[in-house]
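#struct-queue
[09:14] JT: dropping the first one here, sequence first, then the structure tokens:
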Amino acid sequence: MTSVLRDLDPRSLDRAATDLCLTQVSAVRPAQLSYPTPCDEWNLGELVAHLVAENRGFASNASGVVDRLAWQPGPPEVALVEFPASVELLAKAFADDEVLQRMVEVREFGVFPGPVAAAMHFLDYLVHAWDVARAIDLPNPIPVELAAAALRLSALFPAARPVGGAFAAVVPVGEGAGAVERLLALTGRDPEWSAR
């Protein structure tokens, strides 16, 4: 773990990913909440509700207060309005250096050192920014440098994908695939996915 995180600050990476996701979610209109997404189990509204719940859950538990109810998604229409505030709530929690020394419970996945929890949120939010963008037919928003950092941090997590796990099975891509395509494939997404 320490070798992977030695020269990467997952909190600054995570802020970049949450800001990126905020830009995409800010483009969503209420009439689009029923749109499909690359996450087969969620439409766009359900994905936005998940994103707000993730921010609240990580923020609470990173602050040292285990609140399992914070992880429960609310109504999509409410989540769409509350998304920006949830981003700031998370940013405030991760800005406290104490989180680096704290163990953080992450939903049903377990308890992790603070830096690993921040890396988990970063990876999740980066690919969800792409999910939101593609659901509303916007171009890929992920910068190559963030994709490369996410690929490096992915070494922290097991490659095995249990049923019901965080991501679907790895999608095969060609040898010449770039960092963004490899990240999407690693997290179970078809880089060519389109809602049309």
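[09:21] JT: and here's the second one, same format:
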Amino acid sequence: MKITQKTTRHLFKGLQLAILFLFATFLQAQPDLPERGITLVPTQAINFGVFCISGSGTIEVDFQGNVNVTGGVVSINTTTVTPAIFEIKLCQGRTITMNYDYSVFLNGSNGGQLELIIGGTERGISGDIFASENNCNFITPLRVGGKLIVPANAVPGMYTGVFPMSFTQE
């Protein structure tokens, strides 16, 4: 077989196609990216502890669990005071936007309602964006505080309710 310049060009083009095919196959063989699903688990409810009132005021639990009272509200038992805690699992350091209402009303076991102003959190306020941990095996905690508005005529009892929060990933 006589090797000519034309044969060399055909061999070179064939070699280029083979390399391109191997490269394309290599690109297709890459592992899929981890799923983009977000998992959110509430692990602790917000708890304002035991308090009494002699007039209107507020009781606030910040995201670190510190208590602050104003007006006629007196905190009696702070050992049970806790912020709400959520555990967020989202892979690869993606960003999360959190949103929540400004306030909700809690219903008392003996009647009555108290307004709960939601926030702040260790990651900002409603509408803020923050990054999740970089590895799918780690959990990003989110601690949320709140403030109860207590009127002077508040009915004694246990007050319960929920506050919706939404989390979207970018």
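[09:30] RK: nice, looked through the second one.
[09:31] RK: Confidence is low (pLDDT under 50) at residues 10-30.
[09:31] JT: good to know. Residues 1-30 form one domain.
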